[in-house]
Amino acid sequence: MAVVHCLGTGLVGAWVAKRLAAAGHEVHAYDIQPHRVMGIDGITVHPCDVLEELMSMSRNGPVDMVVNMLPGDIGHMATTDLAESGYRVVDLSFSKFTPDRDDQKARDYGARILWDVGIAPGLSNMLLAVADRRIGPLEKAEVWVGGNPTGPYGEWKYMAPFSPIDVIAEYTRPARVIRDGEEVVLPALSQRHMVDTGEHGEMEAFLTDGLRSVLKSIPAVEMSEFTVRWPGHIQKFIDTRESGDLDENELIFEWSYNHKIPEFTWMKVRAEARDGKVLEWEVEDHGGDDGHSMARATGMVTACCVEAWLENSKMLPLGVHAPEVLSDRVIAKIVDTMKSDRVRIEGPEIL
């Protein structure tokens, strides 16, 4: 078994740390408030300012893998520093700054970083890569994804399944998409439309900036990612923002996750080839005793990437790598593991 150092023990980070410890790994968890992993067998807790401890983790034992699950720009700063560490890093942090800019630095220092390893970005990238390899070049690639209460909940019809700060950033960051084969920037929250989510009926979708690495790695005439919410949620956000009454601290409180409220995570990935062939996958999870749906759906991808890399130390060379570079074999194993753990994934088999 390996020694894995987990940075950040929020809703998703705690789930991953517990999962890796349950698999028999020695886990070191770092967070200024690590209460979610206190007292868990196999997890040594380090209450601290994580950024101050990054380069001294080796004092706590070997470092076979580092998993960065810190929020927003803090997570980006951690990955930038880790590019100088020589470690293998699985990076789940999400910031407008992406770690590919540190590729040469990672190569120079002997680091290997796999970034954006959640459900979207992450699994969505992997499925688009499978489609591109199988039926590409692509005419259109689309991703719809959202973690929501199972019914419109509260005044906002929403609660955040991960850091509300990251949700607010998602709503305000301009969306980079592909139109006519070229990257263009469109306003976040634009192109609103209804989407059928199956048993949950119709929900509202809108553009957000979630494509990231696939903008350059997967050729397509048109490519978009849409966030999915209950109707009324995003209009309230827009109205509150335009009135000048938007208070981020209030939103963090009002959107805070309530474990007593049933919730689900849903994603659809659709790829259409230039000859009209279509590959489509649908992913859905309703949570369980081990955690809520977004923690499971996101964290399972992260944990599977850790396991795959521990099994094959040569899985990735030096440098910074996006999830779509993973082989179909690794992607198939991730999907099979998720299915075996009660995540519903329907679509073409990955060989």
Can you walk me through this structure?
The protein is of the alpha/beta class and 351 residues long. It folds into two domains: 3-119 and 297-346, NAD(P)-binding Rossmann-like Domain (Rossmann fold); 123-291, Dihydrodipicolinate Reductase, domain 2 (2-Layer Sandwich). The chain contains eleven helices and 16 strands. It has helices spanning 11-22, 50-53, 72-82, 103-109, 123-135, 164-172, 214-217, 233-242, 248-254, 293-311, 328-340, and strands at 3-7, 26-31, 43-47, 65-68, 88-91, 112-115, 138-149, 175-179, 182-186, 193-196, 202-207, 220-229, 263-273, 278-285, 319-321, 344-346. The strands form two sheets. Strands 7, 8, 9, 10, 11, 12, 13, 14 and 16 form a nine-stranded mixed β-sheet that branches. The chain has a seven-stranded parallel β-sheet with strand order 3-2-1-4-5-6-15, sandwiched between helices. Strand 1, helix 1 (11-22) and strand 2 (26-31) form a beta-alpha-beta unit. Helix 10 crosses helix 11. The longest helix is centred in the C-terminal third of the chain and has 19 residues, at 293-311. The radius of gyration is 19 Å and the shape is globular. The two termini are 28 Å apart. 48% of the residues are buried. The model has no long low-confidence stretch (mean pLDDT 95).
